[in-house]
Known about the structure:
This protein is of the alpha/beta class.
Amino acid sequence: MRGFILAAGFGTRLRPITDKLPKALVPVCGEPLLAHNLRVLHRSGAFSALGVNSHYLHELMERFQRESSIPFELFYESDKIRGTGGALDFARDFLSGDDAFLIANVDILHKFDIAELASRFVESGRICSQVSIPADSLGTILYDSATGDYLGVAGDREALASSIKPSTPIDSVGANCVRPSVGGILEAEFTGVAFYRREFLDFVNKDDFSIVSIWKRAALAGHAPGIITPKKEASWWMDIGTHEALKKIEAEVNGGRIDLWN
């Protein structure tokens, strides 16, 4: 399995820090975000190779790569930032080097058991599984409680609930939705980590930007993405994309409530 960290973003929510640093190199408790993410993937032992994409302030990313104790390939999106979908196409040869790969956002910190999740993904037979945490409300994605299939983004709930009938064609239910089974429509927090089989790349086009349209494309072809939930004892995660989040994680670590290194 290959591991790939999405690190090309501008980090606009973290300005003025990111005026001079790429988001991936913003320090968290004395260590760049990217270093935390590389360590988690490397320690899992699940990956034959690691990759990272870059765009903004690429020369600083190159310097980090040279100094990193964990080797990784760097994919420089020099002409434009490509989004998640475009990043998959740009690194297609690298990602297809093994049967499966993981994609993770660099501004997410977590304590997931990556090796255990990878094993469950391989056993599932799906070509895509999103690491997600079920939520009572305010989730970011919708899924089918009966099948575990991804249905769409949270804003699609009303359209799904009001317009779907058993005879509704799957491709007539909104831009980002697929049709649920007779289960219920539940919400979950997508954590920014997802597993894919190499076959998923068949649904990626060179002009894609958002991953959402690719998830839908795969679903319409009979390969609905699923959700995979970390075990309770390994379910901590945090989006570190804002100044408020940086202050919170510093307090959590300094207070001994979270250990990012073990």
